[in-house]
Amino acid sequence: MRTGLTSVLSESAAELYERLIASGGLSLSDHPDLPGSAAARELIDKGFARERYVDRPKIVPVEPISAVDNAILTKQWQILDQYQALLRLRDEMQALQRIYLSATVAEEPRDLVRILTDPDEIGALSVELCLSAQHEVASLETGYFSRPPDPRSARGVPAEVLERGVRFRNIYAQAALEVPGAADMLRISREAGWQCRVYPRLPMRMVLVDERAALLPLARTGVEGALLVRAPVITAALRTYFELLWNRAISLDVNPAKVSPEQDQVLRLVLTGMTDTAIARHLGVSERTVRRHIQALLAALGVTNRITLAVAAIREGWAD
């Protein structure tokens, strides 16, 4: 039996279809039970066979090319039905989401500080907080990981959250850009709607939502436990701390009006204090290429070393 048939037909229907192809059709007088069999009904319903009553009544096969076109058309209609069902489900979930958000905002927190130790609960709560944001999500990302990060795990931003006008900002520690896959992770995050900057060193991770809740790690990686803080005085202090870091962090937005996009990327990573080796690893290029870009930047700004390069770049408005 051809295995491709069983991807669209049951095994019994596939066997019957091959018999029909080999024989040119089966007479109903010789096989009186055939029209009522499940295999025959499946073939007819899916467009692989038909009943013919000219001369001797028969069940005959549909030409294989036409049969597979029928199968494709049937599958397309099924996918369309499933897609429309998902759209209806999404509309229903959005209505429930609005009810959920209104209840979440109105609810007075019972525990101003709570310790969490279940990694699954911590991850779910982090997502839930971001989805419930009304104004802004601010986060810090260090270079401490329990295992190398997967770029596919980069946090996306649901369209309905962006439609509410929620702003997403993230500050990466310099060390976070030096781990394998960091460039892809950063690219995916920015494409998803995050504004990203880099700061030389960060002492901890953090997720701060609307200045009403913050999630802080109890250890470096954050998987050992976390602290959920809803105390307004503490979340306000964390907001001030984040803004101080944000104003001093280096933006990763490209400014093509000044230099080439490649040179702009190198310049911004130089400003974070990264070495040529770390920059090359992050961008996926050779150290020679990095040094060539740095020399071009030095010549363009009329300076001779990295220290004066940073000063001149900021003075000339080449970097935020």
Automatic annotation (TrEMBL):
What are the BP-aspect GO terms?
regulation of DNA-templated transcription
GO MF term (any one): DNA binding
Matching entries from PROSITE patterns are given as:
HTH_LUXR_2 (PS50043)
Residue span, HTH luxR-type domain? 252-317
Matches recorded under InterPro entries:
Sig_transdc_resp-reg_C-effctor, TrmB-like, Tscrpt_reg_LuxR_C, WH-like_DNA-bd_sf
PANTHER family linked to this entry: HTH-TYPE TRANSCRIPTIONAL REGULATOR TRMBL2 (PTHR34293:SF1)
This protein is called what? Regulatory LuxR family protein
